[in-house]
Specification:
The chain is an alpha/beta fold. It has two domains: 120 residues, Response regulator (Rossmann fold, 3-Layer(aba) Sandwich); 97 residues, Arc Repressor Mutant, subunit A, CATH 1.10.10. It is 40% helix and 23% strand. It has eight helices and 14 strands. Strands 2-1-3-4-5 form a five-stranded parallel β-sheet, with helices on both faces. The chain has a four-stranded antiparallel β-sheet with strand order 6-7-8-9, with helices on one face. A three-stranded antiparallel β-sheet has the order 10-14-13. Helix 6 crosses helix 8. 28% of the residues are buried. This is Phosphate regulon transcriptional regulatory protein PhoB. It comes from Aequoribacter fuscus.
Length: 233
């Protein structure tokens, strides 16, 4: 597998050190910059596969660099995750409107960040998508359209399979029922949001056999929806 490169643009040394360790453990190559001028030069010269971009930086804000990247044909396709202590909805919307592919607020769990990085790298093509997605002893095989737990096949319906496939491809991210309907059922299909709850219950039941139980991987996020969070990502 290609050793994907991640540019970390962050002026706080302690956070950079933590991110470098997390990225290296995940077999991702870390490149570092502490201001937007150096970051832009590195992006042009070294073409990282993804950029982790802090919002507040010396010499200009991360949002300024993001605008610059998205205006340039040479850099507009590079995925960008915003790292920010700004949690208000307006700030999040601003970052996404400018072109950020994702955002994560400080403080954050390194495991969650690595999961989001891998998902973005797969979608961008920098990290090849596997026909098999694994989470512990749970394995989803796209080519055969089958799911295995501890080597034993699980029985589940087509909607539950699509739901699990989406969750396993996007771990550690909470999705509303409306978002799940759009992603799994399709935006042109009218289905009531409570239908999601029915299929979540069916999926949790299907994720159990005599060899084990992975139903707890599907977590309910109060006030939001659901998240796929297997241990040890």
């Amino acid at each position: 597998m290609k050793n994907c490169s991640v540019l970390v643009v962050e002026d706080e040394v302690a956070i950079r050190d933590m991110l470098r360790m997390a990225l290296e453990i995940a077999d991702l190559r870390c490149i570092e910059a502490d201001n937007i001028m150096d970051a832009h030069a590195i992006i042009i010269d070294r073409r990282p596969d993804i950029v982790l971009l802090d919002w507040m930086l010396p010499g200009g804000s991360g949002i300024e660099l993001l605008r610059r990247l998205k205006r340039d044909k040479l850099t507009e396709e590079i995925p960008v995750i915003m790292l920010t202590a700004k949690t208000s909805e307006d700030n999040v919307i601003q970052g996404l409107d400018v072109g950020a592919d994702d955002y994560i607020t400080k403080p954050f769990a390194p495991r969650e960040l690595i999961a989001r990085i891998r998902a973005l790298l797969r979608r961008s093509g920098a990290m090849p998508s596997s026909e098999r997605i694994e989470a512990g002893e749970l394995v989803l095989d796209m080519s055969s359209h089958r799911v295995f737990l501890a080597g034993e096949p699980l029985a589940m319906g087509p909607t539950e399979f699509k739901l699990l496939s989406f969750f396993m491809s996007h771990p550690e991210r909470a999705y509303t029922r409306s978002q799940l309907l759009d992603q799994v059922w399709g935006g042109n299909v009218y289905v009531e949001e409570r239908t999601v709850d029915v299929h979540i219950r069916r999926l949790r039941k299907a994720l159990q056999n005599d060899m084990g139980d992975c139903s707890h991987f599907i977590q309910t996020v109060r006030g939001t929806g659901y998240r796929f969070s297997p241990p040890g990502i």
